[in-house]
Specification:
With 338 residues, the protein is mostly beta strands. The protein has one domain: YVTN repeat-like/Quinoprotein amine dehydrogenase (Methylamine Dehydrogenase, Chain H, 7 Propeller). Strands 1-28-27-26 form a 4-stranded antiparallel sheet, with no helix packed on it. A hairpin with a 5-residue loop joins strand 4 and strand 5. The two termini are 32 Å apart.
Length: 338
């Protein structure tokens, strides 16, 4: 009887943990506007979600999905970085080759700072209080002093950069999509400190970091996520994920890596130890839901998606013949644990 009771007690203790690791799409919020989108960013203190969307950034409440405002007067936006002091934010406007400074209370544009060609991924670096924009076409990084709003460095990179991650200790990492590499950048000296190849990881895009265990998570084509030691560059694991990923986040409180895949899935991976990872779930989301953001305070995950029209014939304006999002279909998916 004692053995049976002990087993039941163990199951009762473990059951909530297992349940908490299963996710579901809890809500879908329609968002006005047309055009393509890119990265999302969460302000957990103000409960705001920033959505880069064509020539503007939509701002919605992260509890209700209600529109709060928008940052407008832009051309083709990609990413948003937030100054943790709460006063300002920074947007990469790839079509304008600029970094846009905006007021997070009024959403007014305060200043535009010239960057390289086609700035895309962007990160806040806390030790130096700098903003790092990564320019896809000019293959370099623009570093801006947040106090003076001046460009203080331009760092040449070995190839086309994608998304960055900062470790909070003065180092910035970024995927080099065209070379299947990660580079390590020193935020104090503005120098490229190391270049690390990724094995079995083609065209790396999204990048996240577990700053405690010093592990980088780089998501790639070919259904692969590379796990890299941020101090040595050693690739310690490769995890199978969904197809067409473009973003990844690390939930430090729950030790979970979450990957948004354009095929229409969210891969949930548990960090069992710094070098051991287990796929818990491939949650169906919506086709095109390739970017995401995490509210670390709640564990809620937000993904952006839309429905697309048929593939058109190539034109000078659309040389690749990319299908366009259908008006009125832009949606934010809210994912929560059951």
């Amino acid at each position: 009887m004692q053995k049976i009771s002990a087993r039941l007690l163990l199951l009762a203790v473990l059951a909530p943990c297992a349940l908490a690791q299963q996710f579901q799409v809890a809500d879908r919020w329609k968002v006005d506007g047309t055009g393509r989108w890119d990265y999302l960013a969460v302000d957990p203190v103000a409960h705001l979600l920033y959505l880069t969307h064509g020539d503007r950034v939509e701002v919605i409440h992260d509890k209700t999905g209600a529109s709060v405002g928008a940052i407008t007067g832009l051309k083709g936006v990609h990413g948003v970085a937030l100054d943790p002091s709460g006063g300002e934010g920074y947007i990469t406007d790839g079509a304008d080759d600029s970094i846009v400074v905006f007021d997070r209370h009024t959403f007014a544009v305060k200043q535009k700072i010239a960057a390289g060609t086609n700035p895309d991924g962007v990160a806040w670096e806390p030790v130096t209080a700098t903003v790092w924009a990564f320019n896809g076409k000019s293959k370099n990084a623009t570093v801006v002093d947040s106090k003076t709003k001046q460009v203080i460095a331009t760092i040449q990179l070995p190839g086309k950069p994608e998304f960055p991650a900062a470790d909070g200790k003065g180092t910035v990492f970024v995927n080099i999509e065209s070379k299947n590499e990660i580079v390590r950048l020193d935020a104090k000296t503005h120098t490229l400190a190391a270049t690390w190849p990724l094995k079995g990881c083609e065209s790396p895009t999204g990048l996240a970091m577990d700053t405690a265990s010093r592990r980088l998570f780089s998501v790639c084509d070919g259904n692969a996520m590379a796990v890299v030691n941020a101090d040595t560059g050693e690739q310690v694991a490769t995890v199978k994920i969904g197809d067409g990923p473009d973003a990844v986040v690390f939930d430090a409180a729950r030790k979970l890596v979450l990957v948004s895949n354009g095929e229409g899935t969210l891969t949930v991976v548990r960090e069992k130890s710094p070098d051991v990872y287990e796929v818990l779930q491939d949650l169906p989301t919506q086709k095109s839901a390739r970017t995401l953001a995490l509210d670390a305070s709640t564990g809620h995950v937000f993904l952006a998606a839309a429905e697309f029209g048929p593939k058109p014939a190539p034109t000078p304006e659309n040389p690749k013949g990319r299908p366009q999002p259908l008006p009125g279909t832009f949606t934010v998916l809210v994912v929560e644990s059951k």
